[in-house]
């Protein structure tokens, strides 16, 4: 049936949790493209027939004309589906940049097509050049700050870190109270979860505690829920 | 300064933090957050807020050096953090809206609402999105169907461009009484907008009031 593959492609996308990237469905994607080519071939041959009959394409409504009409609209529908598929994916890819920073973990990269990986890097660069022009770091403070300092537990040996006018030694499993702005670069690359969870501060902190993630430079932190510290 | 936290200094700083600019950016931020389409960029306001942030930073630094009360310093730090958050979040929401509707924005007069840097960002984003779609879809489609903006060569206008939903409902509050306000063109629905009352209305109907600053989104 015309247009079935394309709708399956989108159904697959719609059935998965929003904000999560699915594996790029190369096979279905190629099938739809192939279908488009077939429609086009049919269209051309129908047009040729119309031309042979020496009829005006715009005014006649015979079998060939209606056939061409159906092929044309199936093609348009397929195109809309493909574009929607790509646009939705591109939107998720962009949101990943805001949530995870400029470096993506391998397991997410594996779900992208090559062009999408390039797109992520290009887009990330665009955001960065905006930030440097404006001289502001927009990736900090994704959640409204509640207190100026945060309790952190170091998950991996980082060594001595210079924070403003003093330096502290961040060894594994040690607990510190740091200024939020100082700690944030270490926490940003912690986990991959939908944006909904990030809005809720409590859920955010818990996720940060439970999901351990090794950053690209081995810089890793987890936030402690305040209760544990007090107790 | 011998007495760093004299009453005078405190008053100075608190008047700094309490100026209307912070309130204004909060308002701009809230409106931007709730509106489905991008609003006018508050360039002058952003500049003023940044200056204030810098001043606050200096105050915090100074008082840390002077070794003044930790509690006072942390209060200032908190205030600074919150203002910074407002500014960042404001700019961020705008960028995210641009990401979503970049083509629509650059084709309509919404373009004039962007700052210079945002315009640059939009151009760059559009170019790379176009590249992505070109590589994965458009270049593989038959002749006549490969346009980025149109469904096919026979479409008269650009009908492949995602647009914001202006029909969505928004919460809003009027600052001053607007009076009887017509919600649709036919004039069937008229609402009396009273100051400080909360309303849920389609964004499209009150778009003009939001742009004129007569009504705030919440």
Automatic annotation (TrEMBL), chain A:
CDD domains the record matches: GINS_A_psf1
GO cellular component, one term: GINS complex
Species for this entry: Musa troglodytarum (fe'i banana)
Entry keyword set: DNA replication, Nucleus
Gene3D superfamilies listed in its UniProt record: 1.20.58.1030
GINS subunit domain: residues covered: 65-134
Family indicated by similarity: Belongs to the GINS1/PSF1 family.
Main location, first listed in the record: nucleus
Record-given protein name: DNA replication complex GINS protein
UniProtKB/TrEMBL annotation, chain B:
Compartment annotation: Nucleus
Role this protein plays: The GINS complex plays an essential role in the initiation of DNA replication.
Annotated protein name in UniProt: DNA replication complex GINS protein SLD5
Gene3D superfamilies the UniProt entry points to: 1.20.58.1030
Lineage: Eukaryota, Viridiplantae, Streptophyta, Embryophyta, Tracheophyta
Assigned keywords, A-Z: DNA replication, Nucleus
One GO CC term, this protein: GINS complex
Boundaries of every GINS subunit domain copy: 56-135
Sequence ranges assigned to domain DNA replication complex GINS protein SLD5 C-terminal in this UniProt record: 164-218
Family: Belongs to the GINS4/SLD5 family.
GO biological process: DNA-templated DNA replication; double-strand break repair via break-induced replication
Superkingdom of origin: Eukaryota
């Amino acid at each position: 049936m015309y247009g079935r593959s394309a709708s399956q492609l989108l159904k697959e996308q719609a059935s998965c949790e929003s904000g999560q990237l699915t594996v790029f469905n190369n096979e279905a994607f190629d099938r739809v493209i192939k279908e488009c080519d077939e429609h086009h071939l049919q269209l051309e041959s129908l047009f040729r027939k119309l031309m042979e009959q020496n009829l005006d394409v715009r005014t006649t409504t015979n079998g060939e004309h209606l056939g061409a009409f159906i092929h044309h609209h199936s093609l348009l529908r397929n195109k809309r589906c493909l574009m929607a598929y790509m646009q939705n994916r591109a939107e998720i890819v962009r949101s990943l940049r805001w949530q995870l920073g400029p470096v993506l973990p391998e397991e997410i990269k594996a779900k992208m097509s090559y062009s999408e990986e390039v797109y992520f890097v290009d887009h990330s660069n665009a955001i960065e050049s905006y930030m440097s022009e404006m001289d502001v770091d927009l990736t900090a403070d994704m959640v409204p700050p509640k207190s100026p300092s945060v309790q952190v537990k170091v998950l991996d040996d980082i060594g001595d870190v210079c924070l403003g006018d003093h330096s502290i030694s961040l060894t594994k499993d040690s607990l510190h109270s740091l200024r939020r702005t100082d700690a944030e670069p270490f926490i940003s690359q912690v986990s991959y979860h939908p944006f909904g969870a990030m809005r809720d501060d409590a859920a955010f902190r818990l996720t940060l505690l439970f999901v351990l993630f090794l950053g690209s430079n081995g810089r890793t932190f987890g936030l402690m829920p305040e209760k544990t510290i007090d107790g | 300064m011998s007495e760093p936290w004299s009453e005078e200094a405190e008053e100075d700083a608190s008047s700094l933090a309490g100026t209307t600019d912070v309130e204004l950016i909060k308002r701009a931020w809230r409106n931007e957050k709730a509106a489905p389409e991008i609003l006018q960029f508050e360039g002058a306001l952003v500049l003023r807020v940044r200056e204030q942030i810098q001043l606050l930073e200096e105050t915090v630094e100074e008082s840390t050096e002077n070794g003044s009360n930790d509690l006072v310093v942390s209060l200032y730090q908190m205030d600074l953090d919150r203002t910074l958050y407002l500014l960042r979040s404001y700019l961020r929401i705008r960028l995210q809206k641009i990401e979503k509707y970049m083509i629509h924005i650059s084709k309509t007069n919404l373009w004039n609402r962007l700052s210079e840097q945002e315009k640059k960002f939009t151009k760059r984003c559009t170019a790379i999105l176009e590249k992505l779609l070109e590589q994965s879809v458009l270049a593989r489609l038959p002749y006549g169907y490969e346009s980025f903006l149109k469904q096919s060569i026979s479409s008269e206008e650009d009908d492949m461009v995602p647009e914001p939903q202006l029909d969505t409902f928004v919460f809003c509050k009027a600052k001053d009484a607007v009076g009887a306000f017509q919600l649709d063109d036919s004039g069937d629905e008229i609402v009396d907008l009273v100051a400080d009352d909360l309303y849920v209305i389609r964004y499209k109907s009150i778009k003009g009031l939001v742009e004129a600053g007569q009504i705030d989104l919440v």
